[in-house]
Amino acid sequence: MKRYIAFILLAALVLCLSACAAKVEASSATLLTPVASLEKPEPQALSSGFYAHQNKFAWQLFSSAIAEDKGKNVLISPLSVQLALCMTANGADGATLEQMQALLCQGELSSANGELASYLSQLPTDDKAKLHIANSIWYRGGQAPIKVYDDFLNICAGYYNAQAYQAPFNRQTVDDINGWVSQHTDGMIPTLVDDLDPSTAMVLLNALCFDAKWQSIFTVASVDDDFTAFSGQKQSAEYMFSNEYSFLELPNATGFTKNYASGGYKFAALLPNEGVDIYDFIASVSAEDLSAALAAPQSIQVRVWLPKFTCEYDLNMNELLCGLGMSDAFDAGMADFSKMSDAGLYISEVLHKTYIQVDENGTKASAATAIVMPECSAYGPQEFRTVKLDRPFVYMILDANDLPLFIGVVTELG
Fold first, then answer.
1. The domain at 213-310+381-410 falls in which architecture?
2. Model pTM score
3. What is the CATH architecture assignment of 30-56+76-211+312-374?
4. pLDDT tier at 41, thresholds 50, 70, 90
């Protein structure tokens, strides 16, 4: 009997923040200017607790996502989800705020705003490794406008550089929202929102776009071989080969890292030991285990076989987030977003879409998150290792401090 081995692939990237946000050409929306100027926060040193919490949140989110879609290709961006939810949390109060803080922050939301702003401002950028991050708030105007408080809008503008749009929330607004998402993801995510319920009064958006070249090219760009899917089916795959010099090891897995051109980004992969199921492996790994492995690579040559792959994924995160403790925000009778508006809002949907392409040139990845809110009514070693990614694997996009910004699992190709 042939043995089935699952892989873990950690696509480790350090993301870089684009210095300027593109303008959205929205025919039905009015771009608003913050009523009061909020000084941009000064960059601050980030505590070890910040990084530990970010890793914990990312692994919790990923573990919950794969539980919902076992056997499927899954890809999430914890950073995209966190930024969208943290903006939303600034309008929350009472138990709703407490639940959101407990999941999203290591302390008070007011401190988390500053830490996240500092974190984003410290991410490097260059022509060979780019990240663009954008946030926006859309709320209903027209014949049934809602009042959104200036303090909330200005906090989101100051810490998250969020633009505010007032729109009639009709079919054209749906097109404008999707146009904004497509523009800020370089067309990789052309559609996020299908329609807007008549009761919908606000949509908060995050978009994230990453594009990086490899630091050293693959010495062999294309070799045809099989990939064994989670189902056991053999699939045709196109593999790339390179020698790397950063070996990763966990109790149940081995792996490698490969740098991107900027030097501040890396792609990492972990292969569970022979006979270990991919989901059993994920369940056995904690955020602390992952951080420790990524922080202590060994300078051993690794012969890497990486398949080219593309993945698109979308997920409604309502049940997932309720299961992680922030249930009040989704309950029309319990939600308290009284610091955001007097309209009596709650969260009806948290929509998340992602895209990634890995080939001989580098990696392109995008993510978008929408928080939909209706009204309540409403080097040079002698030995080497070989890692061939020819079976299901998990991959992640990480920053220089190994914080997961994207996490996914590939169970099949094509």
1. Roll (2.30)
2. 0.88
3. 2-Layer Sandwich (3.30)
4. low
